[in-house]
Write a structure and sequence with these properties.
Length: about 190
């Protein structure tokens, strides 16, 4: 476990060295490091609550440099299921930095998708993970409603920002809030 923590710290250290262009869209967050502590044992908690299928497709909607998803990738190594990792990002500078400096950590287990979050099809994902893609609650609610409408039944949406506790996801119809102790996740019903 210590080895994986060291790898994660190396990954985060390289992520933090980025200097470059951030989005000028006032409604979008520039890259913000997800609170990795929020993710501690997240996949294990989902597994203990029988929320993971045998093959798990996880998508980070707005992957940035992928630090949070990389943490989940490391966690997946201790769970006896097949995991596939996907990251969606429209900022070409983030994608270039990830491809140049961080992709080697992934052992060819990450599929990157260049594009806008709002026009993606989320139907093939079992977990859609996000930090908080939009600043304005109305746009966030529209985004989460769109994701909810496109995912299949029993798929999970995870918002890292406030561990799901203050999320606009609480206002989206068709989702069941699941309390994992220190984290809320939302399952499509």
């Amino acid at each position: 476990m210590q080895y994986q923590e060291n790898i994660l710290l190396d990954y985060i250290d390289i992520s933090n060295k980025f200097v470059g262009y951030h989005s000028k869209n006032q409604n979008e967050w520039h890259y913000i490091m997800s609170n990795i502590e929020n993710n501690k044992l997240l996949l294990e908690k989902l597994n203990q609550n029988n929320l993971l299928p045998e093959e798990v497709n996880i998508c980070d909607a707005g992957i940035g440099f992928g630090s949070a998803l990389f943490d989940l990738y490391l966690q997946s190594k201790s769970i006896n299921k097949k995991f596939n990792f996907f990251g969606i990002e429209k900022n070409k500078n983030y994608l270039e930095y990830l491809n140049t400096n961080l992709i080697r950590f992934w052992d060819n287990k990450l599929t990157l998708i260049k594009g806008d979050l709002t026009i993606q099809n989320y139907s093939s994902y079992d977990i859609v993970y996000t930090f908080l893609p939009y600043k304005y609650p109305t746009d966030l609610l529209k985004f989460y409603t769109r994701v909810t409408n496109s995912i299949k039944k029993n798929s999970i949406i995870i918002e890292n920002s406030a561990c799901g506790k203050k999320s606009e996801l609480l206002k989206v119809d068709g989702l069941e809030k699941i309390d994992l102790g220190d984290y809320f996740v939302f399952r499509k019903i």
